[in-house]
Amino acid sequence: MNNVIFTGIRPADNRPYSEMTQEEQAAAGADAMINFMQSCPGKTIMSGVSGFVLGGFFGLFMASMAYDVPVGSEGVKHISDLPLKQQMKLQFSDMGRRSWSSAKNFGYIGMIYSAVECSVESLRAKNDLYNGTAAGCITGAGLAIKSGPQAALLGCAGFAAFSTAIDMYMRGEASRPPPNDYDD
């Protein structure tokens, strides 16, 4: 393969894709994908999708733990009083509702947090612990603002503390992989 420096999607000489070799096209596509994933919109989309999937699994798990839920129809006080087919139908529909709701919430929170963190990092032109803390505060306050200033303050403090704790753990010495033969 030729030694070609890639900038963006095309090689430095701006040749069209039809004139590139297959290896150059693959490298240009991989470069474009990496650049997108490292951009603010890419990070926001990936966080939203990851949060949606994680929230769906979390909602499914929590719904499966809530058994024998009161139904509310006449003469039936608990789901265990119904025939098995109706029990299963109610449980699966409840699991679907809870999974969908949890997935939407986790995806929304992931997107908001990631977008705010990336924006703060871009504004400050630094990648440090304070970006996550500020993003947590802004996200927590923004999610709780409809409940009033006290809720916004508590949301800010709670999200900032959680975000700081996670960032400290991820940046800490314990999270680094062990050295290998390629490290200096």
Question: Beta-sheet strand percentage?
Answer: under 5%
Q: What is the general shape?
A: extended
The average pLDDT value, as a whole number, equals: 83
Number of helices: 5
Main sheet strand line-up: 1-2
Oligomeric grouping of the chains: single chain
Number of strands: 2
Class by SSE composition: mainly alpha
Distance between the termini: 28 Å
pLDDT < 50 runs, ≥5 residues: 1-10
Mind summarizing the main beta sheet? 2 strands, antiparallel
Helix content: 55-70%
Q: Please write the string of helix (H) and strand (E) elements.
A: EEHHHHH
Q: Rounded to an integer, what's the Rg over CA atoms?
A: 24 Å
Subunit structure: Component of the TIM22 complex.
GO biological process, one term: protein insertion into mitochondrial inner membrane
Transmembrane segments: 45-67
Pfam families: Tim17
Can you offer a commentary on this structure?
Helix content is 66%, strand content 2%. With 184 residues, it is mainly alpha-helical. The chain has a domain at 43-106. The protein has a two-stranded antiparallel sheet. The longest helix is centred in the middle third of the chain and has 41 residues, at 84-124.
Quick overview:
Component of the TIM22 complex. Helices cover 66% and strands 2% of the residues.
For the structure shown, list the relevant keywords:
184 residues, mainly alpha, two-stranded antiparallel sheet, disordered N terminus, membrane, TIM22
Outline the secondary-structure elements.
Layout: E1 6-7, E2 10-11, H1 22-37, H2 40-65, H3 84-124, H4 129-144, H5 149-171
Antiparallel strand pairs: 1-2
